[in-house]
């Protein structure tokens, strides 16, 4: 059976693994994203690839990453989370370094591919897959087809303005800046007077919120912002489902609390759609990247 090295690149973590041709993850791991310069970023990818080459016969390298991706050339045209790779032909660089074919696609689209392949959207013609992490990305299927848009920007839902544009909320106008895990962690650090560079996981915020009403209010506001974006997407595209992936999908109470906030929106019943988790949760990017590789 053919095997692939898959990467799911995020602004905070890079997940990697070996995935076979039917979507099984044979092994996986992760490391902290190091993007202080392009050379360091590429070297980290190469190290993982070279380590796997000693154990597996690698058919290809499949990469999921945030931003506006020209999948034809494997180039991130815009990458809000990792600026050093903007305009860089990742596909070409890694193919020359490894001698193995490389394919690159947007993380939201890869998550959608995974769910369409063998997840919770196998029978769906119209659905939206959201990845909630350092930012918010999206993959959109309409009439059974993935929507990429005129210049690969379809699904860049994190740029939706869902909080108004006012002086008092400067910096938190768009969805990625008011409903991502990165945003929640930054608000938490600010409230507690912690160093912005301190490495804190989102799980800590939710845990401390149980004992601090101010942090709980912060978490509630985060859920509210997330629900507003989902409401807007449901009203605009009328999907059969909205599926949510990323690290947050591992929280047992996440989906129930999100649904409560959606139900608190006066007009939710008018635009209602099923909201569920990605079957593959935090593995969707790895599986979807391989699906894209095999079908591009």
Instruction: Give the CATH architecture of the largest domain.
Output: 2-Layer Sandwich
Supply the helix-strand structural class: alpha/beta
Radius of gyration: 19 Å
CATH topology assignment of the largest domain: Nucleotidyltransferase, domain 5
- How many domain units? 2
- Gross geometry: globular
Name the CATH class of the largest domain: Alpha Beta
Q: Please work out how many helical segments DSSP would assign.
A: 9
Please trace the helix and strand order, writing H or E for each element. Answer: EEEHEEEHEHEEEHHHEHHEH
Biggest sheet: strands, sense, closure? Answer: 5 strands, mixed
**Beta-strand fraction estimate:** 15-25%
Description:
It comes from Clostridium cavendishii DSM 21758. InterPro entries: ATPase_NBD, ROK. Belongs to the ROK (NagC/XylR) family. The protein folds into two domains: 3-111 and 283-295, ATPase, nucleotide binding domain (Nucleotidyltransferase, domain 5), CATH 3.30.420.40; 120-277, Nucleotidyltransferase, domain 5 (2-Layer Sandwich). 36% of the residues lie in helices and 23% in strands. It contains nine helices and twelve strands. Strands 3-2-1-4-7 form a five-stranded mixed beta sheet, sandwiched between helices. Strand 1 (3-9) and strand 2 form a beta hairpin. Helix 6 (213-237) crosses helix 7. The two termini are 19 Å apart.
